[in-house]
Write a structure and sequence with these properties.
This protein is mainly α. The protein has one domain. 86% of the residues lie in helices and 0% in strands. The protein is built from three helices and no strands. The protein starts with 7 loop residues before the first helix and ends with a helix.
Length: 112
Amino acid sequence: MKKLRFHPVVAGILQALGILLYIVLFAFVGVPLIDNVEHTPVMSMMAPVFFLFTFSFSALLCAAITGTFPAVLLFQKRYRDAAIVIISMIIMMALLLALLLTALLMSRMLIR
């Protein structure tokens, strides 16, 4: 049995940070590109296609980020390590969400 390169908790944290990085990159690169598109009838028809494609790509990328390492651990019959990776990722995602919501609420309070 091979030794893990990362502790399962660290792997879960890195996976959560990978998803956060993807979301931030999409928010800062993808959204401004969408806002600069001319609103023509053709682009209005393409908007649902773009949305569904982007949604599908996001689901695929997030599944690859979050599921690959636990799947490898499961195939190696390392169920405990796989569970620790998944649980630590869920906890880290919840903490990041709480941090982002807190920052959003604090910024709204400062604006008023």
